[in-house]
Beta-galactosidase
Amino acid sequence: MNKLRYGVAYYDEYMPYDRLQEDIKMMLAAGINTVRIAESTWSTHEPQNGVFDFTSVDRVLDAMHEAGIDVIVGTPTYAVPAWMIKQHPDILATTSRGAGRYGARQIMDITHPAYLFYAERMIRKLMERVHKHPAVIGYQTDNETKHYDTAGDNVQLQFVKYMRNKFGSLEVINQKFGLTYWSNRINSWEEFPSVVGTINGSLGAEFAKFQRTLVNEFLAWQVQIVNEYKLPGQFVTQNFDYDWRGHSFGVQTSVDHFEAAKPFDIAGVDIYHPSQSKLTGIEISFGGDISRSLKQSNYLVLETQAQAFPDWTPYPGQLRLLAFSHVASGANMVAYWHWHSIHNSFETYWKGLLSHDFQPNPVYNEAKTVGADFTKLSHKLVNLRKQNKVAILVSNTALSAIEWFKLPDGKLYNDVFRWIYDELYKLNVEVDFITPDFEQLSHYELVIVPALYSVEDEALERLNEFTEHGGHVVYTFKSGFTNEDVQVRTVVQPGIISKACGISYNMFIAPDEVAKIQSDVLLWSSEDAAITSWMELITPTTAKVLASYDHPEWNNYAAVTRNQYGAGTATYIGCMSSPAALRSILADTLQHIGLWQEEQKLTFPIITKKGFNDEGKLIRYYFNYSGEEQAFVYPHKAGTQLLTDQSVSEGQQITLSPWGFVIIEQ
Amino acid sequence: MNKLRYGVAYYDEYMPYDRLQEDIKMMLAAGINTVRIAESTWSTHEPQNGVFDFTSVDRVLDAMHEAGIDVIVGTPTYAVPAWMIKQHPDILATTSRGAGRYGARQIMDITHPAYLFYAERMIRKLMERVHKHPAVIGYQTDNETKHYDTAGDNVQLQFVKYMRNKFGSLEVINQKFGLTYWSNRINSWEEFPSVVGTINGSLGAEFAKFQRTLVNEFLAWQVQIVNEYKLPGQFVTQNFDYDWRGHSFGVQTSVDHFEAAKPFDIAGVDIYHPSQSKLTGIEISFGGDISRSLKQSNYLVLETQAQAFPDWTPYPGQLRLLAFSHVASGANMVAYWHWHSIHNSFETYWKGLLSHDFQPNPVYNEAKTVGADFTKLSHKLVNLRKQNKVAILVSNTALSAIEWFKLPDGKLYNDVFRWIYDELYKLNVEVDFITPDFEQLSHYELVIVPALYSVEDEALERLNEFTEHGGHVVYTFKSGFTNEDVQVRTVVQPGIISKACGISYNMFIAPDEVAKIQSDVLLWSSEDAAITSWMELITPTTAKVLASYDHPEWNNYAAVTRNQYGAGTATYIGCMSSPAALRSILADTLQHIGLWQEEQKLTFPIITKKGFNDEGKLIRYYFNYSGEEQAFVYPHKAGTQLLTDQSVSEGQQITLSPWGFVIIEQ
Amino acid sequence: MNKLRYGVAYYDEYMPYDRLQEDIKMMLAAGINTVRIAESTWSTHEPQNGVFDFTSVDRVLDAMHEAGIDVIVGTPTYAVPAWMIKQHPDILATTSRGAGRYGARQIMDITHPAYLFYAERMIRKLMERVHKHPAVIGYQTDNETKHYDTAGDNVQLQFVKYMRNKFGSLEVINQKFGLTYWSNRINSWEEFPSVVGTINGSLGAEFAKFQRTLVNEFLAWQVQIVNEYKLPGQFVTQNFDYDWRGHSFGVQTSVDHFEAAKPFDIAGVDIYHPSQSKLTGIEISFGGDISRSLKQSNYLVLETQAQAFPDWTPYPGQLRLLAFSHVASGANMVAYWHWHSIHNSFETYWKGLLSHDFQPNPVYNEAKTVGADFTKLSHKLVNLRKQNKVAILVSNTALSAIEWFKLPDGKLYNDVFRWIYDELYKLNVEVDFITPDFEQLSHYELVIVPALYSVEDEALERLNEFTEHGGHVVYTFKSGFTNEDVQVRTVVQPGIISKACGISYNMFIAPDEVAKIQSDVLLWSSEDAAITSWMELITPTTAKVLASYDHPEWNNYAAVTRNQYGAGTATYIGCMSSPAALRSILADTLQHIGLWQEEQKLTFPIITKKGFNDEGKLIRYYFNYSGEEQAFVYPHKAGTQLLTDQSVSEGQQITLSPWGFVIIEQ
């Protein structure tokens, strides 16, 4: 990508009156150089079966081109028209909750041939129409695609075939999945019961894995069609989104992003997060780190919040902070969902850059400063490259398995993931993301492995080998407990990694109110000593104990250990500590392995990010994620503050205004 | 009505043994002069399809007549017999929760022709039987009629026709309802999807509006049949009830009471409320004010609680207080549901005046004193007429719209309504209720408009005109935001009323923990300064700021404003304040516009109500809604305490016993 | 039974690899002398319709026999194979929640002829195979059998016939059940509506009663089949379980244990309970007392927890304490569910004696000491006989009725039951359990009757007679309120027992925050004076007031009374007091009637149990249910501490280690 893009989603079709020229004028004033269109409006573009109308697409493309604004065209396949469902009601996904109802988006069975027929026809018609238009720089296939829990009879049939292909025989499945339990054995293929009622976690997790393959196949199929039309210089992307807990929270449950991203030219993503006094930047950071890791390259933020909800409307200064935070993580585009606020229907209170009155407002006015600075600094900031020494290993397989076997207090995979990520973020440790099948572990010095509950032997052996050859690994509790079929390993836990970790355990406890950890080595307040959710009663074999339990009954057991294994170390965290104690454990690990740098001496709310630009220069960002002024001493070689063109020298004190930031080119 | 009626619901059919003469003896001893019968017992009166048996009706009518007790006969249509559902299972209403189940009352589709056929036959048979009986003074059609969420295919078809009649074309509907969003456009009538799955708030709110018309039509149809039999002097009423949150809480969601009341001769109502230490009288007051406003006349309390639930059983004195509170609001009848406590089924713990043992008990004994005083004072207290200067404008349309677009903390229309009403009540401001289409605004000096979120332009223009000509209006946040189709107005907010209010806003926030309001003009404690639920960031144009936000980020914006507009004023409350702060705002408004009277100098728990009786004399009630003795100085012209026949002079101190009251004829 | 049995459930079928000989070696080391097999593995034993494979049963029986371990064989009927449901989907129970789904166990309609056909064939095949095997000592039919809420059309038909058989005519039903209410009358048999939608508590409670008869019939049918094969010396048992609130909580809702137990030779039971710092022993005690009362004999604990959940894993010492607590209540067997921890499916975290690694662990090691002591002391401890003077009268009928008519704060029958039982337990009062139809009341000196809300006249009259003849009764609130049809008695409450209790009431209240009880006779702290859930406003006729209400409005009423009636006394507790106040009331009652013994001078956490062994010697257990050392003075005749063979003399101080205990033979 040759410039930094500042964008909005634009729905001419949703406008209460013709605003196109007025909107473009306001966009240009705000530095908007890219719009995303068309992905939600199938019923406008095909009002009746086989009747097509791309008037609004045409006129927006023409007008944008005339204004010099580039356009990303989305295929409108994620929201099906009423006529289609009236004609083929079974296009609605049947889920474990029963038959679907028409109304919302993302309610169809993405494997249904009738849906695929209509979708393909629509995609081809749209592509034929737009692909040669000079405004078009790329395409988004579908939007936030997931499997929508599709689990009807037809999906069940596909699953049975998937199982036969994968495992060969029922006897293998019965054995690996433990179906003998509670008389669940399947002894002939035609009696394979619908999975929606299963109580077997292995089967349930495998079904989730299968459902994710449906997303991969669907997206690859769309990309293949779009690629037939794509011109040189145009790209195809997808708008991935994250596990949703009222905002982007963690690893996506329904999609294996790493696998699904393969056919795309560039990764796109939407990131939404708490704001106002709850703004930390963490979601921007982890979402960006994952997105960047998908194609090991820069990515597009296709959607993020402008005004959004009444509890997200940014404080003055926050919109600027957010935009540059995305760029600092490696985004080449920051686009808002959406330009204007919608006057009807469902997302009336998910406000855009403009309010319902279309007038300039404080947030729009702040966007104008972002646009101006993006334009000015585009050549310095675009295509930021990272060289991270730390990676986090994440796994959809482990995630699904933990949905079946939650921690006693209900915590899930992403709670453990965020517990880890948040403290790395606060320590200013930048990370890449890898998956269990990633083979070049030696690219990193430290690999952090949260709750890798279900995983193939090979991946664990690879981690052991990495450690033995001088790599460092931090494991949390639950890692390695079951194999890829969610079958608990029959050996002493933590199984395959026991030797690298130098520990064993066979009992685990739900911590009660008095459960704490104590350490002779690490420091935390007595308040921060409390542990929650899980505690494994660890016995070191060769490991050194970093922390042990402080409990009337369990104080003979280790809680956190570190083991020298070959040339590397394996640190094992056997319980869910407080964030502060975790930070202490992580800091100790970084120091122990020589990764404690200047960045780590700064602490949240000061966040720093860095990378190399197209000129090969090191760009450093310093963000203030608080409403109070912050200051720090700049410890690196002299450079230039890009926003102000002021020079900065080593040892100089730099002040960050509330929700403010500086960008230094070294 | 020529006398004050004291009544009970009486179900001879529910009695475990023949008690009729004994019950009548006890009724007479308690001064009961009216009973309500028959509305729940269809399966007794028509035990099999076409087989009728009115024995119990006949014997009760005869016995009551002999005892001099009048009877209101209810049509038994709100609870359908088992035989009917076995023969026509689709009479059960299909709702968004699926098919119905037989068992409860109020489960039928009130538009189903088979149901209507049976209901009409039953009504006619009953009316033929009873209308000439000298005991019968009137009729109640059905009971607490609502639409029961009926939404099956047949109802959907009616809705589609309603939409075509109302809007003419799908293009108009697509545009007004914003159906383009998420591909929801309907491009041919036959593909109009079932509304139960819709995510479109405009469509959802319109369906709710349509469902309310079904209630209007059903009740008008019943009244028309009954009117064919009604003799001169007899009346037809309906037992309206209110939004239910474990007790009567606010404006009814499922019925437009103002519209539904039109065919009736007199409004009837049931009012249930917390009791014991939680008794405030608010529900009696607002329920009475609404009921009185329906026909702008006196009304019947067809049901209220005697002993009722274990947490409602009245403290000594409360039953008396309650009965006279109803009368003070304009009720001409106070009737208990129900005479005795039921020995089986569902409402065993919703106790009547008698316990299950049919013996005199403390509550029955207290009722005897009520009955005696009703008899003694009937000519003084019946037909109380009010001349209120303040009206509250309520709207089912706004209510439904807010069901779709709740406040961020989940609050609904009735929460805002009660927030307003409760403080007016505590300030002893008596009010009438009006709806947006009410044209004689000049009957009032002050109109209070809570959360009029969805409303036609005309209604707002009428309010502007009212203000301009010297009327005063208090608006709360959210008023005027969307039009009658729940389409957000595209102009600067608060839209049409902006000019009268002299303000604008385009941002709104979910208040966080530190959000407060401050004022140089109004007073409240720092604790009472906290705001919740909603805050609009208001910029005054011509308005004076009464209160502004006290918040690290939003303190440049106004929270409460007042604007002189023509000869009147418009006060705008942009956030949900504490009750105390609201009371301060309302008190300031009353003072500002000259409505601060002697009544307002009394404060809750002393509540005063007034009105003129048939003799044209002013009757004043003073209630003590507390368990502690209260005293006040009587500030009006001399009069007579009606309960004791003692005279009272201006300036005399009057003591109210715990849960006690006085009635003064001036 | 000629010895104390120490057992485990053993599923060779669930093993990830062949472990049989290794497992048996470890069992023998732990003193395991009995295993329970086969009850969950139908799909293994009949992999296809009519194809049988008992290989795993054969090999386990042979190996166990060789090792000298006895085997209880379970019929595998509580978990149906996939092939059966694919062929006959309607075997899945239809419930009020709709059609069933395959997956879990206990999901079938136990009245379905196809299911019964397959079940009978399986039982006979299995019995033919095993009944002559020398390892087999007995059989368990099915497992934790309940009715699984089966309520489909076929069950409804059976219910209608049950109703006709029981009541004769619809007129009787309409009258007794109050079906006139809300037009629920049933006027012809063919229109009898499905009960799943009913709002009639009498009908709903009767349906629950009917559903319990289905369990009785199903179990009796299984026993009858098994009995055809059973050899002399073999027994048939059932694994009863209790109301489940995350652990065994109270009287089972879905089964009338007393009735269901009749065809069995010996009662079996599973008992699960909180552990670690929440361990009290109460569930072991009440579960044991009920189980022992079923056949008025010793019982088998067929399942209890070894490691189980992460919050149940026993502290060191607790496993021993638990095992002997069961024996002290009269258990002749203590068996763990289960031997090993399961590696897949649903109960992976319900751990067995072994962890997933099959290695010795602290809990297994503790089991070895239990096994050794069981072996050593078997002849002293087996067949413990109790001679209790106190009985608790429990009732499924009352339980079901209260499900329909919950206490205002949602409390149910078992909350009242546990409120009573827990304080008796803490007072070291050992009890038997009886039901309302129990006729030999004079076997006891004191009968305690919690919330006997629905009951036949005869049972109450029997209690009156018992009282009159010198028995003592303690009733709680709600007792006697309705008859067996859940029809409230029409007489003054508490109805039939009024004369024995010497009280009356007709009002009852949901206590508010200030509701308390006070007493001149009994002592409790002001904090313990608070009452919750329910308060009846009692007027004594002949009773003495033990406590009255302390409330601004209700302090004229009695709360707890005692009445001399003939030669006995009836104590009535009209409200739900604090546990401490209840303990005071119960203690006073025990003292008053001469049942205050040495045992009652000890208080929780010291718990004592006693009984006579096969030699006629008195065995006393003293348990310490706490993590702190406890001491007491032994007040009885000299004896021997069985675990240590030390002698103990009267007046000697005995120290109990944390979670420790002593057993003394007197």
Remarks:
- Chain B touches chain A through 46 residues (CB under 8 Å).
- Residues 268 and 477 of chain B are 32 Å apart (CA to CA).
